[in-house]
Write a structure and sequence with these properties.
mainly alpha
Length: 108
């Protein structure tokens, strides 16, 4: 999409990184912990974007998003599964195997 979040028109980056006013953006509690004043928070926020993600990280994020799965450590995934009561990891590919004892055949 863009090479930097500041280039995306719907990003909150300009507000959080430079202090540009935006009536649609309200400070997130984690953002508030980045510093004691606006200047410190903006500087710390910009630092979060200085390192570029490698291709492996980007691929993992895209795969998780495309499959509507959770990305993170196993204990985090366990917690999200308990909270949402839904699967957050990829399942086994293909159809489930049918065991012969359980199979029903319609012979006419």
């Amino acid at each position: 999409m863009v090479s930097h979040p500041g280039e995306y028109c719907w990003s909150s980056y300009a507000c959080n990184a430079t202090g540009q006013p935006n009536p649609l953006v309200s400070p997130h509690p984690l953002y508030e912990t980045l510093g004691n004043d606006a200047q410190q928070r903006q500087t710390a926020y910009r630092e979060l974007f200085r390192m570029h993600m490698d291709h492996g990280q980007m691929r993992a994020i895209r795969e998780a998003l495309n499959q509507e799965l959770v990305l993170g450590r196993e204990d985090f995934k366990d917690k999200i599964e308990r909270m949402t009561k839904r699967r957050v990891r990829p399942g086994q590919p293909g159809r489930p195997r049918v065991e012969e004892e359980q199979a029903e055949y319609d012979v006419r």
